[in-house]
Amino acid sequence: MTVTVTAARARGLEPLADVLEGIGPVVVAFSGGADSAFLAWAAAQVLGRSSVLCATAVSASLAPEELADCRALAAEWSLRLVELTTDELEDPDYVRNDTDRCYHCKVSLMDAVAPLATAESATVVLGVNLDDLQDHRPGQRAAAERGARFPLVEAAMTKADVRRLSRRHGLRTWDKPAAACLASRLPYGTPVTLGTLSTVASAESALRALGFGQLRVRHYGDLARIELDPADFDSALSRRHQVVEAVRDAGYRYVTLDLEGFRSGNLHPGGEDQSERGQP
Prior knowledge:
Layout: H1 5-10, H2 16-23, E1 26-29, H3 34-47, E2 52-58, H4 64-76, E3 80-85, H5 92-96, H6 101-120, E4 123-125, H7 138-145, H8 151-154, H9 159-168, H10 194-209, E5 215-220, E6 223-228, H11 233-238, H12 240-249, E7 254-257
Parallel strand pairs: 1-2, 1-4, 2-3, 6-7
Antiparallel strand pairs: 5-6
Helix pairs in contact: 2-3, 6-7, 10-12
């Protein structure tokens, strides 16, 4: 059932409600992260669930846990969900893994989503927030070039706004750790392959099974550089044999712990090791 814009305002969703009302039916690029989850939920509140379709791109770059959570969220919130298989690994420009890798990935996503949007007479929307505009994210350019819109940006919402409103409305994604695609674990210039993505996914899954939340396994051939929340350092060191075993079982020979801790997107240009500060 559609919630009127007035009712949405009473729930603290303005001016996002006005933006969504102006856009009309939407197809939400749904990764299950805090931003896309909040956008999908809010769109369902404002436009009604029949006018909101969530589309999740399924490929080797999506961690299995993230796909499972997309399905769980859609079921919990009664959202319509479509899973689309994308073929970015067939694109040499993507596999080459230069600084525009995300551009080519988003092109693949938009090409897959476009027929759905046409069938739904809808606009493709992405959960980009104001903070994201300060980062190196060529995927945003690819999406905008193909007609996608960013309602959170149009409503002048930051990441903090998304988390605050998500918490107010009881969305369990309000404090969900950032979870970029698995290809973001590879330094630029390292080819993106199915085997490499599988190795990274296995290592991260094993560490999550040990109870670690916010983490990245950065891939350097047979060496894994683990980034954890500094609050988890003591636990990791006290269980270092388990940590090493888990990561080696995934296929790495050397296992290291980065003493700087988790830094979102640190493989981008401009940071250490040609890091990409600011990307999840």
